[in-house]
Amino acid sequence: MRKGNLELLKKINRDLVLETIRSQQPISRAKVAQRLNFSRSTVSSIVDELIAKKFVVETGLGSSTREGGRRAIELEFNPKSGFGVGVELMADGLFICITDLDGNMVWKDRSDSGNDFKTIYECILASLDKASISMDKVIAIGFCIPGLTNSKKGIIVDAPELGWKDVAFVDEMKKYLAKPIYANNDVNCAALGERWVGGAKDLENFIYISIGMGSGVGSAIVANGNLVHGKDFMAGEIAYLIQEEDVMRNQVNVAGQFGVFEKKVSGKSLADDESSVQALFRAYAQDDPQSVQTVSHFVTHLSIGIANMVSLLNPEKVILGGELAGYLEPVLAEIRSTVDRMTPIRTTVETSQMGVEAGVLGVIAYAFDQEQNVI
């Protein structure tokens, strides 16, 4: 067997052993070998390597066998063997989160110091120091970007909130950090956060729709377990969805301007600011006619968009996130029934429960996924 193929086979076997320990822990070497139909010597060799790298730990003797034989040493995955750092870039600063390999948050902090490269580097170092984690235990660092991002090349194509256009972000950060670095769009990151530790945990097909308090509306699509990026990394740009009534009114999408659908379902379509949105939903709860009409129009337009995406993609679940999601609970039942009426393809519609951590957790999950070879 050629060396390259042999190394690939070893990695596949190592991944299978680690995943078996991770999902079935505590478990003995013998049971791992039995489940995978591997020889005991192969499993022992792989386990010894994983223990040396601290990804697996021995936790003591298991229970006696029915035959009264020797008790086997049991194994568990060690999530503290490595850590990930997620950094969300915002117009007014940074949000930094550190997790172990299982997604357990060990540190989070927000900084308004700025978002230039040197400041980002210094804030990461400060967060690691406060969390008592050394840089050599960091597996990878991910950046959550509020704008169009070429995640393969690490280029921020266009991020108006940051005032950045065609910035080779990953290459610039590598001048400061000698670690694997990744970047992705914030809505994509939020979807991956949901899949890692949120409402879409372990789902293979789902849609995440982010509705901002201002004018922002976007979505991320996970199909067959993979994030859909599109040719120009613009998959999920639902702000540009359009209907016949829009065309008849000559309301079409123009580059650089708010999308037609965005004008109907963003927070801005409901009210001027967050306090106004709060007031609107309070009045809606009290059956104020004007408020009921405004919210009903919003629900109809949003449901049409969801129904069309459901018909196209057949997702297991649709998750509504973003700043506006926290206000949608009173109308969630109506959204669900309207979507069900508009498409015969069944799905589940929920609001996100993750809050502001979704993006940074998601970009850590994305970075870990890209760095599977480190184990």
UniProtKB/TrEMBL annotation:
Key word Nucleotide-binding present: no
Keyword ATP-binding among UniProt keywords: no
A Pfam family that the UniProt record links to this protein: ROK
Domain of life: Bacteria
InterPro entries linked to this entry: ATPase_NBD, ROK, WH-like_DNA-bd_sf, WH_DNA-bd_sf
Keyword terms of this UniProt record: Carbohydrate metabolism, Transferase, Xylose metabolism
Molecular-function GO term, any one: glucokinase activity
The protein's Enzyme Commission number: 2.7.1.2
Gene3D superfamilies membership: 3.30.420.40, Winged helix-like DNA-binding domain superfamily/Winged helix DNA-binding domain (1.10.10.10)
Free-text function comment from the UniProt entry: Transcriptional repressor of xylose-utilizing enzymes.
Family statement: Belongs to the ROK (NagC/XylR) family.
Name of the protein this chain belongs to: Glucokinase
Species the sequence originates in: Paenibacillus favisporus
Source taxonomy: Bacteria, Bacillati, Bacillota, Bacilli, Bacillales
